[in-house]
Design a protein that fits this description.
Layout lengths: L8 E4 L2 E4 L4 E4 L4 E2 L4 H12 L5 E2 H8 L7 H15 L9 E4 L3 E4 L4 E3 L15 H6 L2 E3 L3 E2 L7 H15 L10 H5 L8 H8 L3 E10 L2 E10 L5 E10 L3 H20 L15 H15 L3 H17 L4 H17 L7 H14 L4 H13 L3 H14 L4 H12 L5 H14 L4 H13 L3 H13 L9 H11 L3 H10 L3 H4 L3 H13 L4 H14 L7 H13 L3 H16 L17 H5 L2 H8 L3 H7 L6 E3 L2 E3 L2
Parallel strand pairs: 9-11, 10-11
Antiparallel strand pairs: 1-2, 1-8, 2-3, 3-4, 5-7, 6-7, 11-12, 12-13, 14-15
Helix pairs in contact: 1-3, 5-8, 5-9, 9-10, 10-11, 11-12, 11-13, 12-13, 13-14, 13-15, 14-15, 15-16, 16-17, 17-18, 17-19, 18-19, 19-20, 20-22, 22-23, 24-25
Length: 624
């Protein structure tokens, strides 16, 4: 075995696998390849046993020790690993399937260690399975006070425990977004544990009466659903910070006993020096979860109040920066500019350098301004601080990869985000978008329907357009019409949107109707006023004009959108629709080169490669 103290890396076909950092990198620049924990474990296990036939039962026991999972979980891991490595269907560059038996890793592998001599191929120590079991998902605490206005408090308690436990060495804790996605859903705790790839689940409740708090917390075995530990805590409201520390220490102690761990310390650093500021922070975070313009505005105002009460409140600055950066894309109106967002994120990092979300906020600002290389660098720093946050991973996929036309990487990165938060509706919606981009139409339809079944409004975001696009590809124009009619907003219907939808899809089926459909679309566009004319409708109409061959109108809409974003000193975001296969005529138009230059994408493509299916010659995009 390789000396455990040496820094061991495996290299194969341009990839580097670093055991100590648990990181897969690629290329001479050693760019990190995002891998969820179990997929990394699968790759490491196979690389260490390269050339060997690994039976499925052996892999299941090694990757999921002491947990019973279905074979489908292994199959999904292998599929995700192949996608991460860039192995196309039918290729066997890295992994060969032995039908009915298992898998074999076949790439040539070099072992590199810090010491001058390398012995036999390294294998992970057996105690590694115990380390893998040190994982806990923290669910929102139930509000038993009888007052809906205090719902935020149980969420805040759980979030603070996530923050504290995630900083305990050796303990893996899914991000808030991942575990809070189960709030209000009747899901068995064993299913949650399997979804989030954890061995233990923490749930609890909060009851308040006057100035007293009663918090009950319990740890549940994710394998069998049995209770491992439970305790109640009674304190005064003014003792909240001490109470959170006490609960965190009790949980870590219980995990040490049940999981045979070491004796790690729990940080006693308070989130804020001001209890009122912290209450505002908890309320704001709860409101922010419902990402509509009104809630975003009220959450932002609460964060502002929090930092006024406590100018050293790093996490409040972090949240302010993230909200301010993305607000214009979501249609929310907030005071200030993107410069303010960048300053707030920098302030958060100066107070607490571990705030990965602050790096992601700065990455978002850079992407919205077309600083693609700087944006990529910031997002990579965010992932280095916290690679469990699906929100940051999704933002990178949507704002950087999708806009740059890296459809395959966009899709693969969205799958990583979904693996981390399989019950989070926004990630399922955007997986559907990414699947549409890479022409995985059946998967996209299934994802879109799943998102709607889980509560996504067909009128919200991209669902209407995904369903419409998929139905057109399948030749079901009537179904495409129904998808768009169900997604029309009342204000748009008042201006005759239903008739326009029918005219457009008649023309898609019968090109002789294109002129009439274009006139109908022109008239609708003239009738509708800016309050009803949001970016979703703008992009929908842009795609329709492209379908109809009316590229002059399509480019007019593109320019109108850019002018609206210019009010906020940005180029805007979420331009993935450029790269749909239906948008080929739009890209082939000479005016698209002007958009490429305006967005300053060429230097990014020169560094990381051209968009999928295209070429870059002398800094110019060659559209195929």
């Amino acid at each position: 075995m390789t000396d455990a103290g040496a820094r061991v890396r495996y290299e194969f076909d341009g990839f580097q696998l670093d055991i100590q950092q648990r990181l897969l990198m690629t290329g001479t620049e050693r760019r990190p390849v995002p891998l969820p924990p179990k997929i990394f474990d699968t790759l490491l296990y196979m690389v260490e046993r390269r050339g060997e036939l690994l039976e499925k039962t052996t892999l299941l026991k090694a990757i999921w020790p002491n947990v019973i999972v279905e074979e489908n979980s292994l199959n999904q891991n292998i599929s995700a690993l192949r996608r991460a490595l860039g192995e196309n269907p039918g290729e066997h560059r890295y992994i060969v399937t032995e039908p009915g038996r298992g898998y074999r890793f076949v790439a040539d592998v070099r072992v590199i260690a810090a010491s001058p001599t390398v012995a036999a191929p390294a294998r992970a120590p057996e105690r590694r399975s115990n380390a893998l079991r040190k994982s806990v998902a923290v669910l929102p605490f139930a509000n038993l006070s009888g007052d809906p206005a205090k719902e935020y408090f149980g969420d805040g308690i759980a979030e603070e425990l996530i923050h504290k436990l995630a900083r305990v060495p050796g303990l893996r804790v899914p991000a808030r977004t991942s575990s809070f996605a189960y709030k209000g859903r009747n899901v068995d705790v064993r299913q949650i544990a399997a979804d989030l790839d954890v061995s233990v689940v923490l749930e609890g409740s909060v009851r308040s009466a006057g100035e007293r708090l009663r918090i009950t917390a319990q740890l549940i075995d994710g394998h069998n659903g049995f209770h491992l530990w439970s305790h109640s805590f009674d304190r005064k409201f003014e003792d909240l910070f001490e109470l959170q520390d006490e609960i965190a220490r009790a949980i870590v102690n219980a995990l040490r006993i049940t999981l045979d761990g070491a004796d790690p310390a729990v940080s006693s650093v308070r989130p804020s020096v001001n209890l009122e500021a912290y209450h505002l922070f908890m309320q704001a975070t709860a409101r922010q979860a419902a990402a509509n313009p009104q809630n975003i505005a009220s959450a932002f105002a609460m964060y502002q109040q929090a930092v006024q009460l406590d100018p050293g409140f790093a996490r409040a600055y972090n949240q302010m920066a993230g909200l301010r950066a993305i607000a214009p894309v979501l249609g929310a109106k907030l005071p200030g500019t993107l410069d303010d967002a960048e300053r707030e994120a920098s302030k958060a990092l100066s107070l607490d350098p571990s705030q990965g979300g602050a790096h992601a906020a700065i990455g978002t600002v850079h992407a919205l301004r077309g600083r693609w290389i700087e944006s990529d660098e910031r997002f990579q720093r965010a992932f280095a601080e916290d690679d469990t946050d699906p929100a940051s991973i999704q933002a990178y996929a949507m704002l950087v990869l999708a806009t740059a036309g890296y459809r395959r990487r966009y899709y693969e990165t969205m799958l990583t985000a979904k693996h981390l938060a399989p019950a989070w509706v926004p990630v399922i919606m955007n997986v559907a978008v990414s699947e549409t981009m890479v022409d995985r139409d059946e998967d996209a339809l299934a994802s879109a329907r799943l998102a709607i079944d889980m509560g996504a409004s067909v009128q919200a975001g991209p669902m209407t357009d995904v369903l419409g696009t998929l139905q057109v590809r399948a030749g079901r124009l009537d179904a495409a019409v129904e998808a768009h009619l169900s997604g029309s907003l009342p204000a748009q219907r008042a201006h005759g949107s239903d008739d326009v939808v029918r005219a457009v899809y008649r023309a898609i089926g019968d090109p002789s109707q294109r002129a009439a459909a274009t006139r109908a679309l022109d008239a609708f566009r003239a009738r509708i006023s800016e309050p009803e004319f949001n970016e979703i409708l703008n992009r929908r109409m842009l795609v329709w004009y492209t379908h109809l061959g009316a590229l002059d109108q399509a480019y007019e809409l593109q320019e109108e959108s850019l002018r609206r974003f210019a009010r906020f000193d940005m180029l805007g975001g979420l331009w993935s629709f450029w790269w749909l296969r239906e948008m080929a005529p739009f890209r082939q138009d000479a005016r698209f080169q002007g958009i490429v230059e305006r967005f300053a994408l060429a230097p990014f493509w020169e560094k990381f490669g051209p968009p999928d299916g295209h070429e870059l010659r002398r800094g110019k995009l060659v559209v195929s």
